[in-house]
Design brief:
By secondary structure, this protein is of the alpha+beta class. The chain is built from 14 helices and 16 strands. β15 and β16 form a beta hairpin. The chain binds flavin-adenine dinucleotide.
Length: 458
């Protein structure tokens, strides 16, 4: 357990949130200590569970004065070690702020508390006759606060953009305890700095998100899912680019390899989709207000180099095809805590990267195994490496340097967290990092917000 904070401070926080929401029992705090991957183990000094934005503001004012560092936590599904208190900080859990309010079906907007899950927002959006543009495998646990803080991407970025593109406004408490709230949801509103856009992706270092005003997208009730097999990664990447250009109603365009498919089938007990083995697979979903099957079939018929194809229109069969892709994250975790290197590559080098990166990993550690899958429609490859000790960073270093050398991003959608902090300079100049530090000092002068993530030590 991290060293217990001053008892007068604990009592003061208890007066704000209620003593039952200040957790000091090690057994209860354990549920907030370790990250989803099992690679990062935190050590909370205390877990604080405020119930509304005013309580968050009062808690932060007390912590700022006392210099008590905090790690904001939502669903704790983050994959870069950013949501757990690695240095014995307090955990500020936002899960109780889970209301979805002010649903405006006409304007296509709603306000979601930081602790509402993505699935909660999706359900409220459907009830209002729309949809929420963000979807990800962790939808039942990942929260609005966490997805805003990480600018989460997911399975529909191709069509609707990442979380930042859904934001009509954000309410957040800065490191000083002062609240910035801009939830009016006006479509056009050029009244100064876009604080919501800045807080989005700041990984809890600038402010604690307490609510977000989110846009809804029109419903797309008619869906088709197809799984396509290819003899090479290059053929799959070529096909992906053809699909992007010719299927405007494409929601998702995902990618995986035979090794990952075999693992998912082994772990989940699912049968293989095709009788033979293939080098690479694309999973695509097309969605619209009218049956997208004729358009999808005509584009699929014109695709060269498809070795096999399965098309699903009914919901159970669509879910079955999706499981081959969505099952990757959990299946890989059964092999031990992976090193997760979520990267973006320019389209021109994507196939060569997929073919070449296992050799980069093997050269760094011959015992390591590489697993590749991801959102190929966005140029996003999840490089997962198993068989490497949690604190051995050789593979991480080699892969991320390789990615940056190819003009790619070392963090596509998961953020920098603590896992990639040593390499943020590969994508950001000293001047940019200096600007980051100045922003941090302005928003969080006492340096109490998530001190272990994003910015490398000065
Ligand atoms: C099975 C699985 C599939 C996934 N798929 C995707 C995917 O497709 N795309 C994708 O982008 N990610 C994906 N993720 C990663 C993860 O779900 C996202 O990063 C998500 O945004 C984290 O939300 P959370 O509520 O769990 O945040 P947490 O894990 O609790 O926190 C993540 C970060 O946000 C900060 N934070 C949390 N809440 C707040 C708040 N209210 N205010 C300020 N800072 C806060 C934390 O301090 C931490 O730095 C996946 C994870 C899993 C386990």
């Amino acid at each position: 357990m991290g060293s217990r904070p001053d008892s007068r401070l604990v009592q003061g926080i208890g007066r704000v949130v209620g003593p039952q929401h200040v957790v000091l029992e090690p057994a209860v705090m354990a549920a907030y200590a370790d990250d989803w991957t099992g690679r990062f183990h935190g050590d909370p000094s205390v877990v604080i569970r405020p119930g509304d934005a005013a309580e968050v503001a009062a808690v932060l004012a007390l912590c700022c004065e006392a210099g008590l560092a905090l790690v904001p936590q939502g669903g704790n599904t983050g994959l870069v070690g950013g949501s757990v208190p690695l240095g014995g900080e307090a955990v500020l859990s936002l899960r109780r702020l889970n209301a979805v309010t002010d649903v405006d079906a006409l304007g296509g907007q709603l306000t979601a508390g930081a602790g509402a899950t993505v699935a909660d927002v999706q359900a409220a959006a459907r009830a209002a006759g729309g949809e929420y543009g963000v979807d990800l495998g962790s939808r039942d646990s990942a929260t609005v606060g966490g997805t805003v803080a990480t600018n989460a991407g997911g399975l529909q970025v191709l069509r609707y953009g990442p979380t930042r593109a859904q934001l009509m406004g954000v309410e957040a408490v800065l490191g000083t305890g002062s609240t910035v709230s801009h939830l009016g949801g006006l479509m056009k509103d050029n009244t100064g700095y876009d604080l919501g856009g800045l807080l989005c992706g700041s990984e809890g270092t600038l402010g604690v998100v307490t609510a977000a005003r989110l846009r809804l997208v029109p419903p797309s009730p008619e869906r088709v899912v197809a799984l396509l097999a290819f003899a090479s990664s290059a053929a799959a990447v070529d096909a992906a680019s053809h699909l992007r250009r010719h299927l405007p109603d494409l929601n998702s365009l995902e990618f995986f390899l035979q090794s990952g498919l075999d693992l998912v089938c082994r772990v989940t007990g699912a049968s293989h989709p095709f009788s033979g083995s293939h080098a690479a697979y694309l999973l695509l979903e097309v969605a619209g207000q009218h049956d997208p099957l004729p358009a999808a079939n005509s584009v699929l018929d014109s695709l060269p180099a498809v070795a096999d194809v399965a098309v699903a229109t009914d919901s159970p069969r669509r879910a079955q095809l999706w499981r081959y892709r969505e099952g990757h994250t959990e299946a890989i975790n059964t092999l031990g805590a992976p090193h997760k290197l979520d990267v973006t590559l320019p389209a021109t080098v994507l196939a060569a990267f997929v073919d070449g990166v296992p050799a980069v990993v093997r050269a760094a550690d011959p015992a390591a195994t590489t697993w590749l899958f991801g959102h190929v429609g966005d140029g996003n490859v999840h490089v997962n490496v198993t068989g490497v000790a949690a604190d051995d960073l050789t593979v991480d270093e080699r892969v991320l340097v390789h990615v940056a050398g190819l003009g790619g991003s070392i963090s596509s959608e998961h953020g920098i967290g603590t896992a990639k902090r040593p390499w943020v300079h590969l994508n950001r100049t000293p001047a940019e990092l200096e600007a980051f530090r100045r922003l941090k000092a302005a928003f969080d002068p006492a340096g109490i917000l998530n001190p272990n993530v994003l910015l490398p030590p000065a």
